């Protein structure tokens, strides 16, 4: 039954040859891979793991893997084959979080020299993900603390005009508790005539967005009212649509805060603040946080041009255009330049104002770099197939379409080939799904060891893989595909009862004219693959019209 899958060697097979074949397949994988003996000694570690832990090539074998692990992410060690997270020591004294998938190698022909089964560990770097999660939690906590400790009353309304939150200062100032106003509109909280005046200002904001300041009476818990200056601004929901209104109350009876008090508030702000003249663009004030983000002393920033800190002139033009149209910019993602030439991402807010008769731009910059890095790290994780580490179907199609567009633009050749593991179901049925997963990982690694660096390899699903070869004709792709097929056929796959071999069938299609699409090319390669299957498998077939 297994003849069509490959030759099976029993427990008495050549252990050294089996191990060498297994190790070579793992050498090309982008994820860290190591094999450990029952006592924890590292028997093999691939180049990716050496790079991940900062060790010199081939220096990990012989070390005790347990001395590399500093912390477990909480999963039950006996819960293999589940993935768990743990912290590994780097050679330079640092540490890296990894997701570890461990499984026993039950092939008796490559057992540990001291007896017992070897353990295969696949280790994927998740440090960026861990740091991103921690940074996001810290940001949310900081925002909550900042909201609650602001010395001015602040309230938040949703898109339906209902109060959804307020800070402690609001409760102390008005005497109205959160419980009394949450999920209620202004008409349920205050006199209808007063509520109507506030609602009219809200409607203006809904239409024009931006920011709005006005004077109006506000209610108190004892039934009295007091004139106050209110500043309101809209905020967006996660889809970019109108989410609601944030309002700040300034009590007119207390008068304007002194210059010394304003200076103290600004210096304690975790957000960078700058003021620049609108007539010549020169900066006339910055707080300490702004100077820290730029990397200069405050006195060295004063007098410089605000435009000098934009990294991208196109982004600066967008800010100017938005200010011209609406008078404000709210939470725009802008990249700024530090004094040392490095860059950082910010959430940038600007409002136009008049201070002591001078027209100015008031700007707030919030360092957004960690959050943006987190988003990029999560996008990278989402682009990979979790089993093999190569591109998943969605990411492969995006990258392949860009190569197809380039081939059309420069009138260059391009080929696609689809690879399928022959009788893969028999492998799963005969050796188990864990061995089948190992076989797919070895197929991915075997393909990467033959393909060029700029060829694109993806997993379409199951045992089917797809490759785009930029700049290659069908005949040139046939040569590459034959090398891949022969290499995979020679690989010895470890199984529970000994090693075995597998074969693959490959269909090829070249780019066909300036109107060809990626989907059509893959479909033609599939037709060629079906022909290879019908003709006996373990072969390469190039698409021809009429298939």
UniProtKB/TrEMBL annotation:
Transmembrane segments: none annotated. CDD domains: GGDEF, PAS. Residues 18-62, 146-192, 258-324 form the PAS domain. Residues 212-264, 330-380 form the PAC domain. Pfam families: GGDEF (PF00990), PAS (PF00989), PAS_8 (PF13188), PAS_9 (PF13426). It comes from the Bacteria. Residues 412-545 form the GGDEF domain. This is Diguanylate cyclase (GGDEF)-like protein/PAS domain S-box-containing protein. It comes from Azospirillum rugosum.
């Amino acid at each position: 039954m297994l003849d069509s899958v490959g030759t099976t060697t029993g427990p008495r097979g050549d252990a050294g040859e089996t191990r060498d074949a297994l190790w070579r397949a793992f050498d090309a994988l982008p994820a860290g891979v190591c094999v450990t003996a029952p006592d924890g000694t590292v028997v093999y570690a691939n180049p990716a793991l050496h790079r991940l832990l900062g060790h010199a090539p081939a220096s990990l074998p012989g070390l005790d893997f347990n001395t590399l692990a500093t912390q477990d992410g909480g999963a039950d060690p006996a819960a293999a084959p589940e993935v768990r997270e743990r912290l590994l020591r780097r050679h330079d004294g640092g540490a890296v979080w990894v997701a570890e998938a461990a499984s026993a190698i039950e092939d008796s022909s490559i057992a540990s020299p001291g007896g017992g089964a070897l353990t295969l560990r696949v280790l994927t770097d998740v440090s960026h993900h861990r740091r991103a999660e921690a940074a996001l939690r810290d940001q949310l906590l900081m925002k909550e603390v900042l909201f609650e400790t602001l010395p001015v009353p602040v309230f938040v309304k949703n898109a339906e005009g209902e109060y959804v939150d307020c800070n402690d200062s609001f409760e102390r100032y008005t005497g109205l508790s959160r419980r009394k106003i949450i999920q209620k509109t202004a008409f349920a909280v205050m006199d209808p005539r007063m509520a109507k005046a506030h609602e009219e200002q809200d409607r203006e904001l809904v239409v024009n967005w931006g920011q709005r300041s006005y004077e109006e009476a506000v209610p108190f818990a004892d039934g009295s009212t007091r004139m106050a200056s209110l500043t309101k601004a809209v905020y967006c929901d996660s889809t970019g649509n109108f989410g609601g209104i944030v309002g700040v109350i300034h009590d007119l009876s207390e008068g304007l805060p002194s210059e010394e008090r304003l200076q103290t508030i600004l210096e304690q702000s975790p957000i960078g603040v700058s003021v620049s003249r609108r007539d010549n663009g020169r900066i006339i004030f910055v707080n300490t946080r702004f100077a820290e983000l730029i990397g200069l002393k405050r006195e060295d920033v004063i007098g410089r041009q605000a435009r000098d800190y934009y990294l991208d002139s196109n982004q600066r033009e967008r800010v100017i255009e938005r200010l011209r149209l609406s008078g404000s910019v709210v939470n725009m993602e802008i990249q700024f330049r530090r004094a040392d030439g490095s860059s950082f991402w910010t959430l940038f807010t600007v409002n136009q104002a008049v201070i002591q008769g001078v027209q100015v731009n008031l700007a707030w910059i919030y360092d957004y770099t960690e959050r943006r890095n987190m988003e990029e790290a999560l996008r990278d994780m989402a682009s990979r197939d979790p089993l093999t580490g190569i591109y998943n179907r969605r990411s492969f199609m995006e990258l392949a379409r860009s190569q197809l567009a380039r081939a059309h633009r420069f009138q260059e050749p391009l080929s696609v080939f689809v690879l399928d593991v022959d009788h893969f179901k028999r492998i799963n049925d005969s050796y188990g799904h864990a061995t089948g997963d190992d076989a797919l990982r070895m197929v991915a690694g075997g393909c990467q060891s033959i393909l060029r660096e700029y060829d694109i390899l993806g997993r379409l699903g199951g045992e089917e893989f797809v490759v785009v070869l930029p700049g290659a004709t069908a005949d040139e792709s046939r040569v590459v595909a034959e090398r891949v097929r022969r290499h995979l056929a020679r690989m010895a796959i470890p199984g529970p009862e000994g090693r075995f071999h597998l074969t693959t069938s490959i269909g090829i299609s070249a780019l066909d004219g300036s109107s060809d699409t990626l989907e059509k090319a893959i479909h033609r390669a599939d037709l060629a693959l079906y022909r290879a299957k019908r003709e006996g498998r373990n072969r390469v077939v190039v698409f021809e019209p009429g298939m």
